[in-house]
Structures are given as structure tokens and as C-alpha cells.
Design brief:
Chain lengths: ~290, ~240
């Protein structure tokens, strides 16, 4: 379980986190969603002990991170958004160092390294030097490393950023499998489809504050089921409808190219913040789909 | 703390093992050049009452233990800024002191290996000193402790590789030439000598040289190095702790 209360962090004049409260129950996967600069990585950096918060508390598996950092960190596996394998070491050596950092004895290291490499289907790459691996392989190796010491909590910071769609889907499959094995997962992402596909619950973060949370269906359902996108003054304006028929009827009445699609989390984020995941603010209108 | 220290140390040893052939070549180049250029050129010229090659070799050991221990700062910076592996250490359940001691131990090992290589060059050149004196190796290790701990501290403070290179140019290079490596500091003007005594390398060179010549060790040199090394350890611990923003 992850429990964050009143988390605040300021960098000079900029307030990165403004009293964030967040809870991830045991076995739950929560997507922490927001545009670049929303404060997602700052939150993860605090959870991993890389940054000190100005205020607030963090409990990891019930252990206070500030009071007992060693015990709290030992419950977590972290996949950074940076491909941070030790490039000069082989994959096995990378994992061995990690296992030693987490106090695993020689037998546990041997067994654990073989197990996680098998888990991410990279047993044949154990002796490969990390810098020679592809981006997708590095990411899978980082997931293997995060799982090596058997953490109950997994912190995934933009785990598929920079990967092509096919590799991204493979990583999603892996994350789903880890979730199925009972891990508590906090996933930061700015990929809407990633959050929709993976998360039990989504938390929207904007400008350092949580603006909404709920299941993907709860968040999108407030707008309606269907969206109509039409160009207006050089940008796309979206209108929301409770049914496909209503959206199609509205589309037929409009001149020029329009498209009808299902409402997604980006629509919900846009409606709540006035900005999309890229931090820009196109217009949106609702038609009886609830707000 | 021991598990963290050993993990950090073993990581460095994995890297060292992989790079050792190349590193050994690079460690040998400068001492070889110095031995050829100064050792042969100066011939039997006396320095400190000894043939110049005998005077030079312990100085090179002291200098090399300094530069190789200091060199871990570059590796730490590569780990921080390029591989971003420092994040892994920050997220691991280890105390900052474990990171510090692991890196420093790796720096000392690297410095002593480089010193061994210089000794081998000395043997090759037929330089007659006391190669196996324990006090010689203790002085080299203490000198490495001083500079490895400073390297860890400063690697946490610099913001780029360029900053690191600048520090080396302004601090380490002048010290290498002024700290009693190549000439007895007694040859310097009287007003300059007290300043040279402020340099850790001066004490290291003096201690290594005395041990190499079978002279009784000067406790003050060892105490200065031990004191500076202890201060460096504390400073490095503080800097690693503060590396969290």
C-alpha cells in the first residue's frame, strides 16, 4: 500500500507539488496522469528518496519513508523513466549489483537473477553488455531489476516513454502480468491509452495538484460516451454526447470533415483542467453527457 | 551498512575488471615518460642526496595514488549524468555512508593498483628502493583515501563534466607538480615552502619517499593524511546526503 498525504515541494519560485494526497491500495494499479511538468516525476523522486519533500508524509507498505527510509525503500522496486542500466556492465552484473544493494545472499542472487531474466524473457541476454541492448530490451531489463528483490510495491515512472508502439504493447503485457501477481503499482504516464489499458484507477495531476481521481470509466463517463471532433479556427474542438446516435446526428449537421469516437481520459482531463496532456488548451463542449 | 558498501565497491570492481587492460596502459604512460625524460636525462644527478630516478619514483607513486583516486570523480559523474545509475543507489535501501565508503574503497584499490604498476616500472628501470615497505603502501593508501573522499564529495557538487575537468586543472595538476613529486620542496624559496606543506601530496610524497629509502617514518605526515582523509570522509558523506534536491 502507498499512502501520500499533503506532499509539497517547491523549487525556487516554482511549486512542483501543492499538497498532493494519494493512496494506492495493496494489489491495485494506479495511473498518475498529467502533462509534462505536472509533478509526476517529482512525486516519484520523493517516493524513491531522491528528493526531499518540503512537507507531507509518505508511507510505503505502512512504513514512514522519512523516519525509516531503509525499511521503506526495501519494499519498493523502481523503474525510472531514464534507461539507467549501468552501460559498462553485463545484464547479469547489473542485476547482481542491484541484488547486493538489497542485501540478497549469493544463493538468492543466483536464483533471483535467473528467475527475473526468465520472467522478462531475456535469459539469453544475461551476458550482454547493457549498452548494446535495444531500448525495449533495456526497459525490460529495468523491470527485471525492479522485480529482483521481490518488492510488494512497484513504482513505474513513464515506463514506455520513447518506445515504439509494438514494444510498448509488449511492456504493457509484462506490467499486466506483474499486476496479476499481486504487486501494488503506481504508474506515471502521459500516454492516455497506457493508463486506460493498465490502470484500475486513474489520478489526474495538474500543476502540482490532484484534480480528479476514479476508474477510467468513472472519469470518462462524466462527459458522455462519445465525442465529436471538428476543426475550428485551426484547432480541434470536441463535443461530447451520451450516445453514438446523438454524436452522429450532430456530425451530420456540420459541414466539413468531422470524426466521431469514444470519449477517452484525455477528454476528461481536458474538461477538468482546460488543458490537454500536452499542456495546451483546446475548447470542449458537453451535450448532456454529464460534467 | 556493509552490504551497501560492498555492493557499490563490487560494481566499481566489475567496471575496473572490464577496463583494466586499457586503464593499466594509461596508468603506465605518464610514469614511463617521466622515468625516461627525467630519470635518464637527469642520470646520476642527486636530488635529496639520491640519484634522481630513486628520488623520482616514490614521488610518482604519491602522485599516481592521488590522480587515480581522484579519477573516480569522473566515473561517478559518468554514472550520475550519463548512465544515471546514481538514481539506483539513491533508491536503494542503503545509507549514504555506504555509498561513500564503497566508492572510496574502489578509489583506493585503483590507486594502489596504479602504484603497483609504477613500482614495476621502477624495477624495470633498475631503481633501487625499498619496494615492499609497509609504510610506503600505507602512505599511498592514506593519500588515496584523502583524494578519493574529496573526489566523491566534489563529484556530488559539480553540475557537469566540464566543472570536473576545471577542478582537475586548477587543483590536481598544480599539486602534482608542486607537491614534492619532481623536486625537493627545500629547493623552493623559503617563503613558498610553508605553502607547499599545506598540500596533502607534499606529505604523501615525503612519507612514501622516507619509507622507500628505509628512513624512519615521520608520524606527522601520516597523521596529516589520516586527518585529511577523515575530514574528506565526513565531507563526502554530507555531499552525498545533500545530493537529494
Amino acid at each position: 500500500m502507498i499512502a501520500i498525504n499533503g506532499l509539497r515541494k517547491r523549487y525556487g519560485a516554482s511549486e512542483a507539488l501543492r499538497g498532493v494526497d494519494l493512496r494506492v491500495e495493496a494489489g491495485e494499479m494506479v495511473a498518475y496522469l498529467g502533462p509534462n511538468g505536472a509533478g509526476k516525476t517529482t512525486t516519484i523522486r520523493i517516493l524513491t528518496g531522491q528528493t526531499r519533500p518540503d512537507a507531507g508524509t509518505v508511507l510505503l507498505g505502512g512504513v514512514d519513508l522519512a523516519a525509516r527510509p531503509v525499511q521503506a525503500k526495501s519494499r519498493c522496486g523502481v523503474v525510472s523513466q531514464h534507461l539507467n542500466l549501468d552501460g559498462d556492465l553485463s545484464l547479469r552484473e547489473n542485476l547482481d549489483v542491484h541484488a547486493r544493494l538489497f542485501g540478497m545472499d549469493a544463493a538468492a542472487r543466483r536464483e533471483g537473477v535467473a528467475r527475473v531474466l526468465d520472467y522478462v524473457e531475456m535469459g539469453d541476454k544475461a551476458e550482454a553488455i547493457a549498452k548494446t541492448l535495444s531500448g525495449g530490451q533495456k526497459r525490460r531489463a529495468m523491470i527485471a531489476r525492479a522485480l529482483l528483490h521481490g518488492p510488494s510495491i512497484l513504482l513505474l515512472d513513464e515506463p514506455t516513454v520513447g518506445l515504439d508502439p509494438a514494444i510498448r504493447r509488449r511492456i504493457w503485457g509484462l506490467i499486466k502480468r506483474i499486476q496479476g501477481d499481486g504487486a501494488t503499482i503506481l504508474l506515471t504516464t502521459h500516454y492516455i491509452e497506457e493508463a486506460e489499458f493498465l490502470a484500475d484507477r486513474v489520478v489526474f495531476l495538474d500543476q502540482g495538484a490532484v484534480v480528479a481521481e476514479g476508474t477510467p470509466a468513472e472519469l470518462t463517463g462524466r462527459l458522455g460516451e462519445w465525442a465529436l471532433d471538428c476543426p475550428s479556427n485551426g484547432e480541434i474542438v470536441s463535443e461530447y454526447f451520451p450516445s453514438r446516435e446523438a454524436a452522429a446526428t450532430a456530425a451530420a449537421a456540420l459541414p466539413g470533415p468531422v470524426s466521431v469516437r469514444r470519449v477517452n481520459l484525455e477528454d476528461a482531463f481536458l474538461r477538468m483542467t482546460g488543458r490537454n496532456m500536452a499542456g495546451k488548451g483546446p475548447a470542449a463542449k458537453g451535450h448532456g453527457g454529464g460534467h | 551498512m556493509l552490504r551497501g558498501t560492498s555492493a557499490v565497491f563490487i560494481r566499481e570492481m566489475y567496471i575496473l575488471r572490464r577496463r583494466l587492460p586499457k586503464l593499466a596502459c594509461s596508468w603506465a604512460v605518464s610514469p614511463l615518460l617521466y622515468m625516461v625524460a627525467f630519470g635518464y636525462a637527469m642520470g646520476d644527478t642527486l636530488a635529496g642526496g639520491r640519484p634522481y630516478a630513486e628520488f623520482l619514483l616514490p614521488g610518482l607513486v604519491a602522485m599516481s595514488s592521488m590522480t587515480q583516486a581522484w579519477g573516480i570523480a569522473s566515473d561517478i559523474n559518468i554514472a550520475r549524468f550519463y548512465w544515471r545509475i546514481f538514481e539506483e543507489f539513491q533508491a536503494a535501501p542503503i545509507h549514504p555512508a555506504a555509498y561513500v565508503t564503497g566508492e572510496i574503497a574502489a578509489g583506493v584499490v585503483r590507486a594502489l593498483l596504479a602504484s603497483c604498476l609504477i613500482m614495476a616500472i621502477g624495477l624495470l628501470f633498475g631503481v633501487d628502493i625499498n619496494y615492499l615497505s609497509p609504510m610506503l603502501w600505507l602512505a599511498a593508501a592514506l593519500n588515496a583515501l584523502v583524494f578519493a573522499s574529496l573526489a566523491v564529495a566534489l563529484a556530488m557538487l559539480v553540475k557537469s563534466h566540464a566543472d570536473q575537468a576545471m577542478l582537475t586543472s586548477f587543483v590536481i595538476t598544480p599539486m602534482a607538480f608542486l607537491g614534492g613529486t619532481f623536486f625537493p620542496i627545500e629547493k623552493l624559496p623559503g617563503w613558498a615552502q610553508p605553502f607547499m606543506d599545506l598540500l596533502p601530496l607534499t606529505h604523501a610524497a615525503r612519507a612514501v619517499r622516507a619509507a622507500a629509502f628505509g628512513q624512519p617514518p615521520a608520524a606527522a605526515d601520516y597523521l596529516v593524511l589520516l586527518g585529511l582523509g577523515s575530514c574528506g570522509l565526513v565531507l563526502a558523506g554530507l555531499c552525498v546526503g545533500r545530493a537529494r534536491d
